[in-house]
Amino acid sequence: MVRGADAVVTNSAESAAHVERLGATPRIVPPGIDLSRFAPSPRPSHRRVLYLGGDVAHKGIGVARRHADTVLGPGIRELAPAEIPALLAAHDVLLVPSVAEPFGLVAAEAIASGRWVVASAVGGLPEIVTDGLNGTLVVDGDVAGALSRIPDYDPWAVAATASRFSVERHRAGMDRVWSEVIGRLAGGRPEPSGEGGADGAHDAVGDRAAAAEDDHASG
């Protein structure tokens, strides 16, 4: 699938490294977050730790059950997307104790909501969480210690670090990918029969590029 794609898009440098080992040159475009939905608010008066992840080992569910006040997600209690901003606002810390994590969208959503993130230093999480600025990266497995050292952080200062994950920046990144692919296709290959111009080129590559992205994400 990767070799047959006109473009391969990954959500993090961690994911890109896996694709490069398959012989492709991926473009990194992090997912976009609606910053009007995920916005900072005052912290709750008492420390409350939230886990939003699946009931699976690689998400660190065992650690979450020991350390989080609220444990939610697939296989535990399903959530509607509309519920997530209020849940983040009602908690002081998001815990992401994953063993493996290609990106970690919920960590970015929490930061955009002005909430401190305590996360394992694995996968794409260090690309989202900057230790000491918007969260704590756990490198030694001492989650309890990390939770005991949460600073008296400013939610608005934390949220300011999430601007790079805006929907607008995501769209701009994908626009650059499409422009590159369409330009290369229109300039170097015959147009598909019955399709013309940039729109035809877009249709011709769309399924292959999207399939490559989905195929990698599903892994």
What is the H level of CATH, i.e. the homologous superfamily of the largest domain?
Answer: Glycogen Phosphorylase B
| CATH structural class of the largest domain | Alpha Beta
Which sequence of strands runs across the widest sheet? 4-3-5-6-7
Number of domain modules? 2
Which class do the helix and strand fractions yield?
Answer: alpha/beta
CATH topology grouping of the largest domain: Rossmann fold
The radius of gyration over CA amounts to: 20 Å
CATH architecture identity of the largest domain: 3-Layer(aba) Sandwich
% residues in beta strands? 5-15%
Description:
- The protein is α/β, with parallel strands linked by helices and 219 residues long.
- The chain has two domains: 9-31 and 167-218, no CATH class; 49-165, Glycogen Phosphorylase B (Rossmann fold), CATH 3.40.50.2000.
- 39% of the residues lie in helices and 11% in strands.
- It contains eight helices and seven strands.
- It has helices spanning 13-21, 61-67, 84-89, 105-112, 143-148, 155-159, 167-188, 197-218; strands spanning 9-10, 27-28, 49-52, 70-72, 93-96, 116-120, 135-138.
- The protein has a five-stranded parallel sheet with strand order 4-3-5-6-7, with helices on both faces. Strands 1-2 form a two-stranded parallel sheet.
- Helix 7 packs across helix 8 (197-218).
- It starts with 8 loop residues before the first strand and ends with a helix.
